[in-house]
Each structure stands twice: as C-alpha cells, then as structure tokens.
Design brief:
This protein has 298 residues and is α+β, with helices and mostly antiparallel strands. The protein has three domains: 78 residues, TATA-Binding Protein; 156 residues, 2-Layer Sandwich (Nucleotidyltransferase, domain 5); 47 residues. The chain contains eleven helices and eleven strands. The strands form two sheets. Strands 2-3-4-5-1-6 form a six-stranded antiparallel β-sheet, covered by helices on one side. Strands 9-8-7-10-11 form a five-stranded mixed β-sheet. A hairpin with a 3-residue loop joins strand 3 and strand 4. It is elongated.
C-alpha cells in the first residue's frame, strides 16, 4: 500500500529531519527528494505531496497525524490509488500483456519519457488502458507511441515461459523478473531517470528484489490500476500490440486461428492442435501450467 499527503514546507522539514535522524539515505532529483531505508521509501515532490511506501507506512502515517493534528481517517491522507499524484518526469511506466491468455507469450514493456512535451503527446494521442481499445486502435496507436518515447519489450515465448515457470513455480515471480529486466534495460540507456510506475500484481518486494544495481537507485511506485498513468497506459498498448502480433504470426504458421483467453473455444482449438500436430506442440504456443491445459488433455 502507498499513502500520499500534502504537507506545507515547514511540515516537510520536520518529517525530513526525522528521517535523517533515523538514518534514512537521502537522494535529490530534478522533481523530488527521496529518503529510503530497508523498510520504507518517502518521496517529497515539488507539488508539496509526500508519498510513503513500504512496510512501515502505518507507523509514519500515525506520526504525521500526531505531529500535525490530522485525523487518521482524514481525507488528506489517501491511498495513492485514490489520488492522481503528479508523478515526476523523467519516468518509466511498465505493464504486461498475455498473463491471462492460455495461448501466446507473456509480454512486458517499459516505456520512458523525459520531458513534459512527451507527456503531452501521449495525452493528445488519446493513450489509455489497452483493455479499453480494439485491435485496430492498438495497432495504430502503438506506432505513434513508439515515436514519442523509448520502450523496451521483453517478449517471453510460450516455450521459454514454460521453462522459466518450471524453475520459478510462480507467475508473479516471473512477472517481477520481466518488469525489473525491462526497467533495467531502459536505465542502461538513460542517465536522468529516478522514478518508475508499475502495476501492483503481488507483494511489492517482488519487483524491488528483482531489480539490479541501477534499478535499486530509483523510486518504484507500485499501484493497482496503474494504467491511469498515461505512461503505464502507453506501455500497456505497446505490450498488447506485441502480443497480438505474435498470435497472428503463430496462427499463420500453425494453420489455425489461435484464440485469446482461456474459454471453451480455446479448449476446442487446443484439442484440434493436439490431434493434428501432437501434444508437444502445445508447449510451443501455450502456457501449459494453466488449468486449461489439463482440460484439453482431459
């Protein structure tokens, strides 16, 4: 969970002094000041908003409430999911596609913008959550998005996905690895980014623990429905376009119209593929740890 509160300059000074006294490391960026220790990250934005992340959020929420006489249920203290935080720029947004689809790859994209002009371009394009767009809009919008910022695409084919899943035995671990890898790839190409936004799909520590040297220097903000941030939405569109493109190519190569999702049509196509191409072929085009796989075999 993340909490955001707006504090005046004097209140911010009091909190920042407390953080320093408790041994927090301090880092300054163009748009924010970041304090972190093993358990908590506190980010002060130029907009006077302060965001708390990590294990000890409730501890700091209570301190803020006691220091400044703010009620615990006061509307001034909100989950980041409920408040439109002015995220700093430059920033990275990450999202994935294909997680819930039996057929096809898992695609994770990190998308990077480095100025307000890039942000304005995405907004003017009408960028939004890919789940709200049809295939034609995704294809056309993805072309335009890639002209605006930098993207890194991690496409894990079903064959590789099945192999990784055998080792990790957990989809969230695999997702965390792919998000962290995409972020690290962007950071290897830029030097001015200290903030990233990702959809929260599990324990916040999953992505944080998967980040390497460069990734551990940034603030990673994880939130549910992260596609409300236009940069994450851009990543979701690029990821979905890559997923759809892969399925279309696989359909041509297999001679079958390979469907999405994990419904009855998916089961029927899976049975026909086994009948004509053999059981092993499914591992080339599908995620075989799904219950759907056993339904097909059954």
């Amino acid at each position: 969970m993340n909490y955001v509160i707006k504090l005046n300059k004097n209140q911010q000074l009091i909190i920042s002094n407390m953080l320093v006294n408790e041994g927090f490391e301090k880092k300054e960026t163009n748009n924010s000041i970041i304090f972190r220790n093993e358990y908590t990250i506190v980010t002060f934005y130029s907009s006077d908003k302060v965001m708390f992340q990590g294990k000890e959020i409730e501890k700091w929420k209570l301190k803020v409430a006691e220091l400044f006489d703010i009620g615990i249920t006061d509307d001034k203290v909100k989950s980041a999911d409920q408040e439109n935080v002015n995220f700093p720029i430059p920033r990275i947004g990450t999202d994935e596609s294909g997680k819930g689809d039996f057929f096809g790859p898992l695609v994770t994209v990190a998308f990077y913008i480095n100025n307000e002009n890039d942000l304005e371009k995405l907004i003017n394009l009408g960028v939004k959550d890919s789940k709200l767009l049809n295939d034609t809009a995704i294809r056309e919008m993805s072309k335009e998005i890639t002209k605006v910022g930098m993207q890194d695409i991690i496409l894990i084919t079903p064959k590789t996905y099945n192999s990784l899943y055998d080792k990790m035995r957990n989809v969230n671990n695999l997702l965390a690895w792919s998000h962290a890898r995409a972020i690290e790839n962007i950071l290897s190409k830029v030097s001015d980014c200290s903030f990233a936004v990702a959809d929260q799909f599990g324990d916040e520590k999953l992505i944080l623990n998967s980040l390497q040297e460069k990734g551990k220097t940034i603030t990673l903000h994880q939130m549910h429905k992260a596609e409300q941030d236009v940069v994450v939405a851009a990543a979701s569109i690029v990821a979905r376009n890559a997923f759809i493109t892969w399925l279309q190519r696989a359909s041509v190569q297999s001679g079958f119209e390979i469907p999405r999702g994990s419904n009855k049509n998916v089961i029927d196509v899976g049975k026909r593929l086994i009948s004509e191409k053999g059981k092993n072929y499914l591992s080339e085009v599908a995620k075989i740890h799904f219950k759907t796989y056993h339904d097909i075999l059954g």
